[in-house]
Design a protein that fits this description.
- This protein has 257 residues and is α/β, with parallel strands linked by helices.
- The chain has one domain: Rossmann fold, CATH 3.40.50.
- It contains eight helices and nine strands.
- Strands 5-4-3-6-7-9-8 form a seven-stranded mixed β-sheet. A two-stranded antiparallel sheet has the order 1-2.
- The longest helix has 30 residues.
- The N terminus is likely disordered.
Length: 257
């Protein structure tokens, strides 16, 4: 239930879907605590292995994928990744995120409903993670808390070690790199994409930025919000967007600004 702070301000219960990795969890938790300080209720959703960090941050925690990704499995994944490099490491990372997407598709809708979540915050490295709130008609924000993914090709995609040059042939190369990477995403997420499309979600899977961009046909709620967290970290929320939610929920999410 949302309670009014004032005639124009509302409490919200905001869920944060975080990777179980300190480098992604730390900025997510900083943002969560900032919103918590503004009288919003927040809940962190992640794999069980991250629970000690969440508790240390004094944030409510709801684990998911306990059976599919127990602590030893998560450690095994990180151990394997540490021994890989180049395209093999990238493919392994994309496959791991895709496997987690399938678990989230099955489990998160019920968890979010049971927890009473009004809106979600997702990581831009959580490829196609926006599909979960889209499925539920829930407003969401995409947080860029690591290197930016420029799917336009004007700068090299961050998974490549290419130098930036403003030349037609370099932009062509960059876009070929984007195409190669997004085809990797599509191939690894084939089952997830099939389930999403079966449920009626139509997306430009070859352009993940279309899930949070301010383009025609999308319902942009709030663009380019930056919050300075207590630890002095500036966190950029790339976009807040909703597909089919009511106007009052949109205004409540806007109230987090």
């Amino acid at each position: 239930m949302c309670l009014a702070r004032s005639p124009l301000k509302y409490f919200m219960k905001i869920g944060f879907i975080s990777f179980a990795i300190p480098g992604h969890f730390n900025p997510m938790s900083a943002l969560a605590r900032q919103l918590q300080s503004r009288n919003h209720d927040v809940v962190m959703f992640s794999l069980p292995v991250i629970e000690s960090l969440v508790r240390a941050a004094d944030l409510p925690f709801v684990p998911f994928a306990e059976k599919e990704f127990p602590a030893d499995k998560a450690g095994e994944i990180l151990g394997t990744l540490s021994r890989l490099k180049g395209e093999k490491g990238l493919q392994f990372t994309v496959n791991s995120i895709a496997a987690l997407n399938e678990v989230k598709w099955r489990t998160l809708p019920n968890l979010l409903s049971a927890t009473g979540i009004d809106a979600l915050v997702v990581d831009n490295y959580d490829f196609y993670g926006e599909i979960i709130p889209m499925r539920l008609g829930m407003p969401y924000a995409v947080v860029s808390n690591a290197l930016h993914f420029d799917y336009s090709g004007y700068t090299p995609l961050c998974v490549y070690d290419w130098a930036h040059e403003n030349k037609p042939e370099v932009i062509k190369r960059n876009r070929q790199g984007v195409s190669k990477f997004t085809q990797m995403l599509i191939g690894s997420n084939a089952e997830f994409i099939a389930q999403a499309e079966k449920s009626g979600i139509k997306a430009n899977w070859g352009d993940p930025s279309s899930l949070f961009s301010d383009r025609p046909g999308s319902h942009s709620v709030l663009g380019n919000l930056t919050l300075k967290a207590h630890i002095g970290l500036t966190i950029s929320i790339t976009q807040v967007r909703s597909m089919t939610v009511k106007a009052d929920w949109i205004s409540r999410f806007r109230g987090t600004n």
